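Usage

Read records sequentially. Each one opens with the input sequence:
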Amino acid sequence: MEFNRGIRALTTACRGTFNNKVQSRSISAYHAHRQVTKRVTLLPGDGIGSEIADSVVGVFQAAEVPIEFERFDYKGGELGDNSPKYREVLSSLARNGLGLKGSFFTPLGAGFVSRNVQLRKDLDLFANVVPIKNYRGINTRHSNTKVDLVIVRENMQGEYSGHEQEVDPGVVQSLKIVSEYSSRRIVEYAFQIAQSEGRKRVTCVHKANIQKATDGLFLRTFRSVAEKYPSIEAKDMIIDNCCMQLVMHPSQFDVMVTSNLYGNIIANVAGGLVGGPGIIPGANIGAGIAIFEPGLRHSAQDIAGQDKANPTAMLLSGAEMLKYLDLNDHATRIEKAVQDVVADGKHLTRDVGGSGSTRRFTEAVIEKLTN
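and closes with the structure output:
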């Protein structure tokens, strides 16, 4: 999945709704003989974040990537609403236009807003893009089946709107917000990704048979947009059936577009088919700004600091970020090194059936890059 293609798709998909930052994002300096160092905001996050961020920094240094990280080792609990630290992070991301992050842990219970969600809302990162594919060297029930799909998730609305209240003692309600504007821009983006990558099918995942107003609007918008792309097959599927179909026949899916909550669910189902959260990259895309992060957003608090974390998802997210910057040679080298280490199987971490460590996996990737 090439997110640099996706950002060009975004320009077309959202014509007239954004400022000209997207159109001017070609970063032509990277095509000149002299490479310019790009500053990127690095947010390791909670749990294993510091370890997998260190892995990326080491690999990028070994690959001589022209990136300078502006690093903030803040935990999610330190980034309170409108706190100085949170404003500092927002300012850095707005200034650099690009971020690489781990996951901020969100505790259960009232009174704590997810910093992952808040960042996406404050920066209008409306599209969450998660590519799912199987990798040679990781044994799963679908190892002999080609899995290669892209989940495009609306990032701003739906059940994640955050409007909940107690209407009577023991009775609460949650407001699900869906607008035609947000539905149209995410569906347009999904079709543009399919078109730019030569993919054949876009599937809208919904529950319009029950959620007739909200999901009904999303589905109607999908069908309206699909008419503009006659060369791409447009299908729709109810969310519960979709989860079953993903587990049974994942190869039928190409690009999937869906609302916020459903996207979170199907990304985790699909990720489980190919090896889990440790190997899935992802990105959050807005107008002139993007944050790359592991696609399934697991902070893995239980293994933090134990040198057990799988850095693959963070490394591949970093490689996708380089493609976004048109640093394709560096991205390809890093991707190949990571894939070769995974295929070798000698340094796989515990989550994918090995006994290796974060440090040794990273060292093996660096050895592939430098030998």
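Summary fields computed downstream for this record:
- Residues 36-126+277-370 form a domain with the Isopropylmalate Dehydrogenase fold (CATH 3.40.718.10).
- Confidence is low (pLDDT under 50) at residues 11-34.
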